[in-house]
Design a protein that fits this description.
The protein has 217 residues and is α/β, with parallel strands linked by helices. The protein contains nine helices and eight strands. The chain has a five-stranded parallel β-sheet, sandwiched between helices. A three-stranded antiparallel β-sheet has the order 6-5-7. α1 crosses α9, α2 crosses α3 and α4 packs parallel to α5. The radius of gyration is 17 Å and the shape is globular. The model has no long low-confidence stretch (mean pLDDT 94). It binds adenosine monophosphate. The site of adenosine monophosphate has 17 residues, from α2 and α3.
Length: 217
């Protein structure tokens, strides 16, 4: 199964991808997570991309495409892409990669969400610095304020989840990523899901779409 999860920052792509990747046993490729790991490890790639992430702008296409290509090479039996593609150029690079491998994208799952809901959701998001579990101070707060339920480590806010950078990320999304909705809709692989509902309801919808695909194959 080859799936793209599309949607603006904060639409729930990361949360849903983790559940789906586990349920279907497919590789989860999350470009934002990969970049954050490179930054944390202070690798040459991490140093190169850190300022883009901090400011909420996109890492240049060739850098992203090169990184993703390595992961696609390692996932011949399927993947779930989360946060990639984010530009038309990236989508075209992915098309070329698929063509070369004689493969195709089975599904594009588009999590749609209103801007106001996104700003509220992102600015109240926190993550555990130890195990990366994600919380939301409004909809899924930790039991003890500021501490992870799983390992009691401190919770942090992502550097790009402050209000000013969130607004920048949403502008970038509108300009560069939203056009991909039309791009994939024309290929008839796109399914639109309302992302502002509780996560388990969104998961149910996604699962029934994916199960429908499996049954119809
Ligand atoms: P995310 O965790 O998906 O919200 O991504 C966090 C940040 O990583 C983005 O704001 C970009 O700076 C960078 N990033 C992640 N994926 C991509 C991509 N496909 N293209 C360019 N930049 C990306």
């Amino acid at each position: 199964m080859r799936i793209i999860l599309l949607g603006c920052p904060g639409a729930g792509k990361g949360t849903q991808s983790k559940v789906l990747a586990e349920k279907y046993g497919i590789v989860h490729i999350a470009t934002g997570d990969l970049f954050r790991a490179e930054i944390a490890g202070k690798t040459p790639l991490g140093l190169k991309v850190a300022d883009y992430l901090k400011s909420g702008t996109l890492v240049p296409d060739p850098v992203v495409v090169e990184m993703v290509a390595k992961h696609l090479d390692d996932s011949p039996s399927g993947f779930l892409l989360d946060g990639f593609p984010r530009t038309l150029e990236q989508a075209q690079a992915l098309d070329q990669f698929m063509k070369k491998e004689n493969q195709s994208i089975d599904l594009v799952l588009y999590l749609n969400m209103k801007t106001d809901d996104v700003i509220r959701r992102l600015t109240s998001r926190r993550y555990c610095q130890g195990c990366n579990t994600v919380y939301n101070l409004i909809s899924s707060p930790p039991k003890v304020e500021g501490k992870c339920d799983k390992d009691s480590q401190d919770l942090r806010q992502r550097v790009d989840d402050g209000e000013a950078v969130v607004k920048k990320r949403l502008m970038v999304y509108e300009d560069l990523t939203r056009p991909l909705v039309a791009y994939y809709r024309s290929e008839q692989t796109l399914h639109e899901i309302e992302g502002s509902r509780p996560a388990d309801q969104v998961t149910q919808d996604l699962v029934s779409i994916i199960d429908g695909l499996v049954v119809n194959k």
